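Protein modeling request. Please complete all fields; requests missing the sequence field cannot be processed.
Requester role: graduate student
Desired output: 3D structure, C-alpha cell encoding
Chains: 1
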Amino acid sequence: MASAPVVTEQELAAKRSDASELVEVGRRISQAHHQLVTGCADFADGPVWIADGEPTAAHWLAPRFDACRSTVRDWIRIGRALRGLGASAAAFETGEISYSKVRAMVSIATPGNEEELLEIARKTAASDISRELAKWSTNNEDDTVIDGRHRKARGLRSRNESDGTMATSLRLPPLAHGILDRAVQAQIMRRTMQREPDGNWPTAAQQSADALIELITEPANHRFEVLIHVDETGCYFPDGTPLTQSAVVGLFPDASIRTIVHDLEHKPVNASRARRFPTIRQKRVERANQPHCSRCGRTDLLITHHTAEHQHTGRTHTDELDTYCAPCHRQHHNS
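Delivered output (335 residues):
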C-alpha cells in the first residue's frame, strides 16, 4: 500500500479548506437537483410539450438537457412522488439527503411511513440505502404488497453502446435474481478458465457474461444449489438480501429442502468429517458462518479453503475451513 505524502500543517489546512469547499459544492448540486426534478415534474404536467407535438415530456426535455430520455423520465417520476412527501422533499432541498437516497426512498415511501424511512436515510450511507430500505420493507409491509411491487418492477432493457456492444439491464425479484446469480456462479466454477487473445485472464464480469451465454445456448442439465436462511428474523440469502416468506414458501413443492442447525448463539452447528474434501453440509455451515471472501470481501465465486493443510492434519473440520473467492484462492496457492 502506498504511503501518504508528507505535507506541512499549512498545506494540510489548505487542503482541508479545499475539501470543505468541495462538500459545499456537493450540497449546492443537491439543491439544484431538487429544483431540477420538481421542475421536470411540473413541466410534464403542463401543455408545452403537447403543443409542440412531442409524444412525452421526456422527448421534449431530453435533447434540451442533452440527457437520455430514461434519465429524464426518472426525474419526472421522482419529482411527482416528492409532492406527497413533504419532509423528504425538504431534506432533499437542503442537501440533508442526496438524490441517490431520494431515488431509493420514493419507491416505497408514503405519507404514513415517510418519517421512519427518512430517519433510515439520514443514518445510512447512500451505498447501503437500498438494502436497508429492503430490510425495512420485509419487516414492515405485507408480503403481497412486496411481491406485487417486485412483479411490477421486473424488466429487461437493452441499449447500444458506442463501441458497438449491447448493454442489457435486467431487474428481477430477489428470489429470481438469486437463482440466476447462483446458476451463473455454478457455471463459472464448472468452466476451465482460459486466457484472452491478448494473454490476460478474463475478469469476473467477463466470466459471468460467458457463463450466462452458455446457460442459455447449451442444452444441459445444469445443477446448482441455492442457499436460503430462514430464522426468527425472516428469510434471506447469505449476503443478507431479504426475501418474503410467501416467495420462499412457493419454492417448497418443487424444491429439495435441506436444513442447517444453529446453536443457542445462532451459530451453525459443527459438521465435521475426517475426509479430504468438505461435504456439502460442511460447505453450507461454512457459508453460513462466512458468507463472503475473508480476504477481499466479495460474495460470488466462493470456495471453501482449508486453513490447516489437510496433508498435515488428516482431517476436514469446519473450524479449520475458511471462505475464499476463486481469484483469492488461486492467488493464495500461487504465492
